[in-house]
Design a protein that fits this description.
Blueprint lengths: L4 E5 L2 E5 L3 E2 L4 H13 L4 E5 L5 E2 L1 H16 L3 E5 L3 H10 L7 E2 L2 H4 L30
Parallel strand pairs: 2-4, 3-5, 4-6, 6-7
Antiparallel strand pairs: 1-2
Helix pairs in contact: 1-2
Length: about 140
């Protein structure tokens, strides 16, 4: 049986995600998290430090859960994603959907004034010339 371990921290609930969040268990994990929200949790921090594998079903469950928490004027925060899943989040633009934090401790901190936790970091990347551009002669 899958168990989402929880602990209370002031007004937040911390839930440890399992090592695998996929087609087989994403509905159960999502239902357990939604139950926390239905019982009054307004800030749900999902500790992803143990996640080794997450498929599209797991990601879809998190998006649905984010909407559920948002409808209740709450906040879903994902913490401690691996480097691989940090890249996946960036590619999919999920930082725009809900905040991702480097650790549970960081997720429990109040957002800085004038800045949202979900705001992606600004990146400056050099612009390479277009492949079809001709050099000046």
């Amino acid at each position: 049986m899958l168990t989402v371990r929880t602990q209370q921290h002031e007004d937040a609930t911390i839930a440890q995600l399992p090592e695998t969040v996929d087609y087989d268990n994403a509905p159960v994990v999502g239902a357990q998290c939604e139950d926390l929200v239905n019982r009054g949790c307004t800030t749900l921090v999902l500790d992803a430090s143990q996640v080794q594998y997450m498929d599209s079903s797991g990601i879809s469950m998190l998006i649905t859960l984010s909407r559920t928490v948002g409808r209740r004027a709450g906040s879903l925060r994902v913490a401690a994603l691996s480097d691989h899943y940090e890249q996946v989040w960036d590619i999919l633009g999920l930082r725009e959907v809900f905040p991702v934090f480097p650790s549970v401790h960081a997720a429990l901190q109040p957002p800085a004034a004038g800045r949202t936790a979900a705001a992606p970091e600004e990146r400056t990347e050099p612009h390479a010339p277009a492949a079809h551009a001709r050099p000046d002669v």
